[in-house]
Design a protein that fits this description.
three-stranded antiparallel beta sheet; 9 strands; about 50% helix; elongated; membrane; transmembrane helix; transmembrane
Amino acid sequence: MPQDLLTKTSFNLDTSGIAGFFGGEEAVTAMSTVHFFSGRWLLGWYNSPGSYTIAKCYGRLARGKLWRGLFLGDGSDPAELFGLGGKKGLRFVAAESGTNLAATGHLAYLLSKRCQGAEIEAQIIAGNRRNSCVNVSIVHLRCAPETRRYVESKRDSFSIFLALLTIFTNIAVCIVSAVYRQWYSFAMILLGITANGISCLVIGSAILELRHSQPSAGSPRGDGVIINDRDMIVLVGDEGAVNFVTGGSFLLDFSSKSISGGKDGSRKGQDLVKSAAQGHNVFPNDNMIPDSGSTATRKSLSDVALPSRVESLPSPSPSKPSNLNKIGACALLLTVQFVLQLLLIPQSSLFGQILFLFSLAVSWAYNSYLASLDRESLQINIISECLNLRPVAHKPVPKYDLATWTGAAVFVAYVLRPSNCRELLDQIIPNNTTTWSKFKEEIVHDVKSAPQLVAGEKDSNTVITQRAQVVDANIEPAEDA
């Protein structure tokens, strides 16, 4: 009988050596997606590989000397550990308030990634020279988000289907192990299902929020420009909206309310922020608009998202050590699982080891799917919806392509029309020789006398293009000075 060959053979796979390490990176990344998908925190009941890797990574969240000794770390910030923070944004120069930030925050980094990935709606090349491409994106911030808001996870039917398939497969394999009296395999699969399920419940029950500082009363408009070596992003909006971009951050609240009460209980009665991404596409297709200056057609830069409905949340209580210690307990449980697998799986027969390995393989495949999802894209969709960024009918927000850095700086001055235009030009173009100063004064005079232009309108695009070409023709004498 084939069954006898599997149960009575002396051959040993010894899968215990890979059970705690195989698929560890995928498992850690999969766990970090738990706050993005609705119900994901309830769907962790499968025998996940990489238990020791997960324990070492997320055990650092626990506070206290005991946990610090078991899981070496310095009490990492939860948001950074889950890939929701820690990225530095680019330099920001305000047009009116005088703010000059050498580095912005994580949300500005996400917005810059959003603009870099957008296709150019209309390529506008000013002048004859083209040393390097300078892209200028214009983002109209139509609403100022509340200083604190809860972010609702998106519903993904396909992800739920894969999770249920993985769970039922693991349970079926566990039952088969019991039917054929493979008790070591049965016990280790059941322990793996329990340990991973509890860990998902505890880690995933945290509340994901967005927060930023409240601007002081009477603050001027927050218009400004985000600058790097090759691109500029013009932000047009009030101080609150710009503060959200330049200094906002994600927050994971592990308070007792979120962990003991669960997500549904703690969030009852709040309006939900639904993700704009469908099928994880960050840049939905816009209407194709013909480019009068080129035979090619490009997509709009417009930040696309559905209108959001959000409510301010009361300031969350800091995550208490006792609550974070629950994560430490989960990490300890995962470590115990790893040790027991090392000891008991070799005692099982070949058939039991094959069943155990099969449950790991199915779970690894599901973890690999979750790890393949772009977490930055999911975050970009969240902030796009919070800022209510969407295309305006007949007024697509363009992304301009200029020939020189100086031409791009002058273009930004035309769009923002700051009260202190010279100061803005000095921040973007630090050259202050006599020739450059004269050139800047001419630009300041022209900007002040020019009518207000709205980037994206057909007539304004034509005027801006013509002026950019004239300015670019006058740049050479200044640059040669």
